[in-house]
Design goal:
- There is one protein chain.
- This protein is α/β, with parallel strands linked by helices.
- The protein has one domain: Alpha-Beta Complex (Amidase signature (AS) enzymes).
- 39% of the residues lie in helices and 12% in strands.
- The protein contains 20 helices and 13 strands.
- Strands 1-3-2-6-8-7-12-13-11-9-10 form an eleven-stranded mixed beta sheet, sandwiched between helices. A two-stranded antiparallel sheet has the order 4-5.
- The chain is globular, with a radius of gyration of 21 Å.
- Residues 2-31 have low confidence and may be disordered.
- The protein binds 2-acetamido-2-deoxy-beta-D-glucopyranose (NAG) (6 copies).
- One 2-acetamido-2-deoxy-beta-D-glucopyranose binds at residues 81, 84, 124-126, 135.
- Residues 81, 84, 124-126, 135 line the site of one 2-acetamido-2-deoxy-beta-D-glucopyranose.
Amino acid sequence: MACSSPLSISLLSSLTLILLLKISPGCRCHSIMGHNFSIKEAAVHDLQLAFKQNKLTSRQLVEFYLREISRLNPILKGVIEVNPDALYQADKADYEREAKAPGSQSRLHGIPVLLKDNIATKDKLNTTAGSFALVGSVVPRDAGVVTKLRKAGAIILGKASLGEWSHFRTARGPLAWSARGGQGKNPYTLGEPCGSSSGSSISVAANMVAVSLGTETDGSIICPASFNAVVGIKPTVGLTSRAGVIPISPRQDTVGPICRTVSDAVYVLDAIVGIDNNDNATIRASRYIPNGGYGQFLKVAGLRGKRLGIVRNPFFNFGNKTFLHQTFERHFKTLRQRGAILVDHLEIANIKTILDYNLSGEETALLSEFKISLNAYLNKLVASPVRTMADVIAFNNKNPELEMIKTIDQEQFLSAEATNGIGKAEKAALSNLSKLSRDGFVKLMTKNKLDALVTPDFSVSSVLAIGGFPGISVPAGYDTKGVPFGICFGGLRGSEPELIEIAYGFEQATKIRKPPF
Ligand SMILES: *[C@@H]1O[C@H](CO)[C@@H](O)[C@H](O)[C@H]1NC(C)=O
Ligand SMILES: *[C@@H]1O[C@H](CO)[C@@H](O)[C@H](O)[C@H]1NC(C)=O
Ligand SMILES: *[C@@H]1O[C@H](CO)[C@@H](O)[C@H](O)[C@H]1NC(C)=O
Ligand SMILES: *[C@@H]1O[C@H](CO)[C@@H](O)[C@H](O)[C@H]1NC(C)=O
Ligand SMILES: *[C@@H]1O[C@H](CO)[C@@H](O)[C@H](O)[C@H]1NC(C)=O
Ligand SMILES: *[C@@H]1O[C@H](CO)[C@@H](O)[C@H](O)[C@H]1NC(C)=O
């Protein structure tokens, strides 16, 4: 879930950086089979073109990524498992493309995707949220989003590392560590990559996969996307199915793409949205899905006429002379030049309370919802060494070395286990959260007729989280220590079309992402 780390955390270890550079003498596989096509940094559109022009096969693409994973992952730790069937799936895609089989024209056909390890697959891969407690568990079926990805012809390359249990085992612990995945590293600095969708972000940033899926409860897509110079879409809650996703809260959880470009993220979004009868929230949210999908909003002139809100306090309290201040002032100028109307110096009512998850009631609500929904998830498994949250706590206590229980706490598990359903305190917290959202973000957006709120990095995450609102993070720069940071465009429920126009307009105007090596 959330991460409350400041923007500047960067534990650059020059020693390890040198080590990494030594192991990566530049990619030997830039050009495939004598052609001038480069897989590194290739977008989905480029890959499809290369398939079509017989410059590339899905097998070559998967072989490339498997090589890069074996080369880079020992240091970056973005991947927990690779799919033993990935090459088989690649051959199948190549065969289908050659035979012009129905579906082989789909955007994601033959494209490898990495899934955060809390997203279930009914195949040889484990689904464990990074914990040894769930090794050997058998899921009833693919997660709803995985069913849709397979239907679109995507290749499941493997499982991405994460903050263990989506960073809801402990609020104090590391953001990108899990017992099974180890400590994820930012490919730019080898420091903090943020979490909890750390591996999904690290892996696309370092070209270990084409595209990936993460999940967010509060900040877990927006933050690592920001830290790793990639694009993250946190969809409106319910737009994408959470069925088969190891949960924190059905009220806040959402599954979204993490990719190198806005267009790649939009193509993945198009593939995963829609009704899933195993997640009823998808029925209500399906009314937001536009006819013809989201790709139509990838317009270079997308910023024209958009009303963008700026809340300086607390989001832009950098100090007037700082590098970040200057960078964002430059971005504001670009947004204006591209036709956006900036509505500046706005305020969100009770913003201090909203950003403090203890005061707002968010923590109270999440702890209770976590116990209820995790117990329900574990109960539905076909087989599992753990069936309840209490079993997971006992497993951790029984395996202190494996789960590093002495150094990395499980206090949120203990607090959650101590809850007893949605009682008086939880109801009060939930009603607080709706009121804070209504009087705060909703009022700000409607009163000022805004299309989006613009904020730096992931600072807005709780504002979006508590109302189930969408947000898109786009690379916005690299700080004085080389740590990437993003710009986030957040909107009201169902505002993905406008957010995509804005995010794509900004990306095309700035093109800030650079590969890490
Ligand atoms: C590869 O070279 C051909 C011929 O020079 C050119 O038309 C094409 O655009 C190049 N492709 C890329 C991806 O650079
Ligand atoms: C799943 O976990 C088990 C136990 O650690 C391991 O033996 C197996 O290789 C894992 N599956 C994959 C596909 O990595
Ligand atoms: C969805 O809603 C229907 C009707 O209210 C209910 O019967 C069903 O159990 C719900 N399904 C899930 C997965 O919550
Ligand atoms: C920044 O500049 C504005 C307007 O010039 C001023 O009101 C504000 O106090 C300054 N803030 C800081 C931190 O210097
Ligand atoms: C929130 O409350 C918990 C205990 O309920 C405490 O451990 C934690 O430090 C508090 N966090 C903040 C940000 O105040
Ligand atoms: C609800 O908000 C009020 C302040 O607005 C606060 O005093 C109270 O503790 C909150 N209740 C919960 C359950 O979080």
